[in-house]
Specification:
The complex is a heterodimer. By secondary structure, chain A is an alpha+beta fold. In chain A, 30% of the residues lie in helices and 26% in strands. Chain A has a domain at 29-94: 2-Layer Sandwich (Histidine-containing Protein, Chain: A), CATH 3.30.1340.10. Chain A is globular. Mean pLDDT of chain A is 89; it is low at 1-9. Chain B has one domain (3-126): Rossmann fold, CATH 3.40.50. Chain B contains five helices and four strands. Chain B has helices at 11-24, 45-55, 69-81, 97-109, 114-123, and strands at residues 3-8, 29-34, 61-65, 90-92. In chain B, helix 1 packs parallel to helix 4. The chains are: A alpha+beta, B alpha/beta.
Chain lengths: 101, 130
């Protein structure tokens, strides 16, 4: 995906949440995000960190965002239940620090 | 749920990758098949066959070999166990070992079918970590 493409937030149906990460986006929360996004096949879920973007269903894509503590991560959801799905993803991003990985 | 078998020359490598993938993908069925029966580096078709049986919950099993004879053992075993392959019982993923294991485990734990789990593993070839 080109780094300079327009964010999906221009679409009226897209929900945007912005989270300042309280912790690094470790492997385990990345797995939980991918699992959560996969539970909602009718909803498109993207995470943006600066110019990097990931389909939230891809655990490697989410880890590849390189989102460290303090990063401003944008959660964009489109489709069925976009609001609730965005909340679910934000909850995982903001959950208290767990053990490595 | 699709099961996943990690095949390596090294028991430690297979066990460690299975532990990591299982941690990241809570609930996944990831089984290690590493080393020889007497604890040396190598591959054992018996161990792989046992791991397949342990991983199989009826929705198919993805084999992920690391390299070299792990791949050859997996291929020869596939001929024996699934002589008339339809891609629903057993598949081999052509993917990096650790990243592929993690991606496949997350996809399997999310309820995807064997074809989609194999695709998730193989997408790991293109995943950037930096």
């Amino acid at each position: 995906m080109p780094a300079n493409s327009e964010p999906a937030s221009d679409d009226a149906d897209t929900v945007l949440r912005i989270v300042v990460l309280p912790k690094h986006l470790h492997a385990r929360p990345a797995g939980r995000i991918a699992q959560a996004a996969s539970r909602h096949p009718a909803t498109t879920v993207e995470l943006h960190n600066g110019h990097r973007k990931a389909n939230a269903r891809s655990v490697l894509g989410v880890m590849g965002l390189g989102a460290v503590a303090g990063s401003e991560v944008r959660v964009l959801t489109t489709g069925a239940g976009a609001d609730a799905v965005a909340d679910e993803i934000v909850d995982i991003l903001c959950a208290p620090e767990d053990d490595q990985p | 749920m699709v099961g996943i078998v990690l095949i390596s020359h090294s028991s430690g490598l297979a066990e460690g990758a299975a532990e990591l993938a299982g941690q990241i993908a809570g609930g996944a069925r990831v089984v290690a098949a590493g080393g020889t029966d007497d604890g040396r580096l190598g591959t054992s078709t018996e161990r792989i066959a046992e791991a397949i049986a342990a991983a199989d919950a009826g929705d198919g099993v993805l084999l992920l070999p690391d390299l070299g004879s792990s791949v050859l053992s997996a291929l020869s075993l596939l001929d024996d166990l699934d002589p008339d392959p339809d891609g629903k019982r057993l598949r081999i993923a052509d993917a990096p070992f650790v990243e592929g294991a993690v991606a496949a485990a997350v996809a399997a734990s999310s309820g995807f079918d064997l074809a989609a789990v194999a695709r998730a593993a193989e997408e790991a070839r293109d995943a950037r970590k930096l």
